[in-house]
């Protein structure tokens, strides 16, 4: 009985950790979508290029290639 309870506790702990990781992943995806939409909106509203819009939002250089790719896929649609 004790082994079964231990096993269930560990399984539940693993599930909780998995859910927390999934939540963090979803938040990150949501943040990236929001930044992409913000960049696009600033580009349109203020007639700026992508780099100028990312400067306005203080987006790190290391992240800019990701957003350039996302913006390019938006313009294809």
Describe this structure in words.
The chain has 77 residues and is mainly α. It has one domain. Helix content is 88%, strand content 0%. The protein is built from three helices and no strands. Helix 1 crosses helix 2. The radius of gyration is 20 Å and the shape is rod-shaped. The N and C termini lie far apart (58 Å). The model has no long low-confidence stretch (mean pLDDT 88).
Low-confidence runs of at least 5 consecutive residues: none
Which overall shape is indicated by the principal axes computed on the Cα atoms?
Answer: rod-shaped
> Helix content range of the residues, please?
over 70%
Q: What series of H and E elements makes up the topology? A: HHH
> Got a strand count?
0
Give a short account of the largest sheet: none
Could you tell me the mean pLDDT? 88
* Assembly form of the protein: single chain
Rounded to the nearest angstrom, the distance between the terminal CA atoms is 58 Å
Query: Which structural category fits the helices and strands?
Result: mainly alpha
Domain module count:
1
Strand content: under 5%
Radius of gyration: 20 Å
Figure out the total of helices: 3
């Amino acid at each position: 009985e004790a082994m079964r309870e231990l096993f269930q506790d560990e399984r539940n702990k693993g599930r909780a950790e998995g859910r927390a990781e999934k939540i963090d992943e979803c938040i990150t995806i949501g943040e990236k979508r929001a930044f992409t939409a913000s960049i696009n909106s600033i580009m349109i509203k203020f007639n700026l290029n992508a780099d100028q819009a990312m400067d306005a939002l203080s987006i790190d250089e290391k992240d800019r290639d990701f957003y350039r790719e996302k913006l390019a896929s938006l313009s294809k649609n």
